[in-house]
Specification:
Strand content: under 5%
Number of helices: 5
Radius of gyration: 16 Å
Largest sheet: none
Number of domains: 1
Length: about 100
């Protein structure tokens, strides 16, 4: 059985990683909004919300449902691949 300290440590790691990745996706959304087109920018901004722990807590209070970590990780991989491989923002980064 896991101790309370181990559980809190694991929750802190997921919380910090959620803030970091949420901030990255939010930044990509702002860059898309300013440099590419508003539609993908707004989509990235909306998708960044699922990574922030505060949004996760709000979703849990309102619906009783939390997005599983495996879905967040899978979506994160897809977002990174799309941003760097297919999107116009990836082309702009390649030109630098």
């Amino acid at each position: 059985m896991q101790s309370e300290a181990e559980i809190n440590n694991r929750l802190n790691v997921w919380s910090v990683s959620g803030w970091i990745f949420g901030t990255i996706v939010f930044t990509v959304g702002i860059l898309n909004l300013l440099l590419v087109h508003p539609v993908p920018g707004i989509a990235y901004l909306m998708l960044s919300l699922i990574y922030f722990p505060l949004a996760n807590t709000y979703l849990m209070k309102k619906t009783g449902f939390v997005i599983p970590v495996i879905i967040k990780v899978t979506l994160g991989i897809v977002l990174i691949m799309f941003t760097l491989g297919v999107s116009d923002l990836g082309d702009m980064i390649d030109k630098l």
